Request: fold
Amino acid sequence: MKKYARIFVYLKSYTFKIFLYFICTVLSIIFSIVSIGMLIPFLELIFNSGSPTLGAITQASGNPVVRFVRNFLMHSIDDYGKQNTLLFICIFIIISILLKNLFLYLASYILNPLKNNIVTRLRNELYDKVLQLPIGYFTEKRKGDIISRITNDVSEVENSVVGTLEGWIRDPLTIILNVGILFFMSPQLTMFLIVLIPIMGFIIGRISRSLKKQSSAAAIKSGQSVSILDETLSGLRVIKAFNAEGLLRSRFFKVNDELLYAKNHIGYRRDLASPVSELLGVMMFAVILWYGGNGILSGSMHLEASVLLGYLGLFYNIITPAKSVSTSFSNMQKGSAAIDRIEEVLRAKNTVDDNINGKKIQQFKHCIEFKNVSFKYEDVTILKDINLTIEKGKTIALVGASGAGKSTLADLVPRFHDVSSGEILIDNINIKDYSLKSLREQISIVTQEPILFNDTIANNIALGEPDASEESITDAAKIANAYSFIQHKEEKLNSNIGDRGTKLSGGERQRLTIARALLKNPPILILDEATSSLDTESEKLVQDAINKMMQNRTSIVIAHRLSTIRHADEIIVLDKGEIAERGTHESLLRAEGIYYRLVQMNQLISVG
Reply:
């Protein structure tokens, strides 16, 4: 049961409600037993309808319950007559069933919100973990697989585990209480019954055993299908341009067919548990009917026919919960695969420590310093022995071929990754000693691909400052050269920009991200290829906005285009993860090294 530990932890918060649920469940079971138990006096009355009293059958019995019922029935017949006693029994059965169902409803009324709260907490915890995990974690995982775990796997847990939560309490209690009463009525018959129950459990267990493996395979295929769907929606233009619809269609259909195959086999196994358990229950019913009836007829068992029929009625009361237990067990086996996939994310190690109690950066005063910094990813060295100082107010440009480590170096400053060796200092304090929130409050980032959300223009600009005034948002938009196009929108700042900003052009999207960075007003800027994907006109507007944004700020600029980096205070040339050259634009040109060749290539491309 270790795999369900998280569910049990959630349940601890609802101890009182679980206690109330337990009481209501016990009461519903008791009234169910009482309603069936009243069959005994009913049968006594019918079987002995020719006798004015119970006479022969009221003789002393070894069972105090039977003796009590018979004495009560005898006095009732003597006082009120058989017809009135029969009416009383029928009314008593109706009241018992009414109370049983009332308490059953109350139990469900208590449990349903509890189950929903558990699923909500699980989904929230999983989403919160996704937000906490370092960026490096998601380079190893398919985005669709993560989405599948938050949606499909949580839904599977809801249906298969939490959905059968009442079966963990109500059905076992029903079986235990009924078996207890049965044992009280006839120890000999009940011992025979107890011998048969493990055989039934073994057969159901054999059917359910393979469900976890098949459910795990189905979850993986479901994640793959979500990944393909996500890639399709993101790359629809490219797919259509290259006539790749057939390729993507066959890929999706193949995964979907494999998912269908896995789900069918899960369904075959899961659905087999219920009819098999019912068949086994009826077989046990028939065996007990034969065994008890044979004992009564042969005289080897001291049990009256009416008591045997009442006993069988109570036993039949066990078959439905026993079937539910077997179904719940099958569903839990199926849901355990989903829990394993969820736990894999929840228990993933967060390699970037938040350091909540760390120091707060009140103000960036002096410099950012890299001391012998190296970074490895899965034993592959990305950066090696980086030594670099970035003075406050200076602009440092990072250049080099693709894969040289430029973006990785910039990502180390806000701790998207942590260094493998060496240290990064801000004002002579290791950035690991600062709280993560405090560190990132000092930094704004503008990336090559504008990251926007399906929300209004105002909310996208105010992402880092949700309490910003409309005036502040407007000022940031003006500096970012975004105000003019915003004014042409029907709802101005309240215009929705669509999924990932699809209602805007590339230049408009990038200017919004610059406005967002400006509104945050940080002392440190990281610009990662912010103009590389824009046309000439958009680039001019964006570059002008960037120049305004960089004034009086410490900037780390990653760019290939000469216009962005030529005025940097220092240019760092990276080659295979190491600093190969460093200096101003003019000094590096005179050296005619790697930077010189990059500039020559850049100029050739521009002329071309």
Q: What stands out?
A: The CA atoms of residues 294 and 300 lie 8 Å apart. Residues 49-62 have pLDDT under 50 and may be disordered. Residues 245-298 form the longest helix (54 residues).
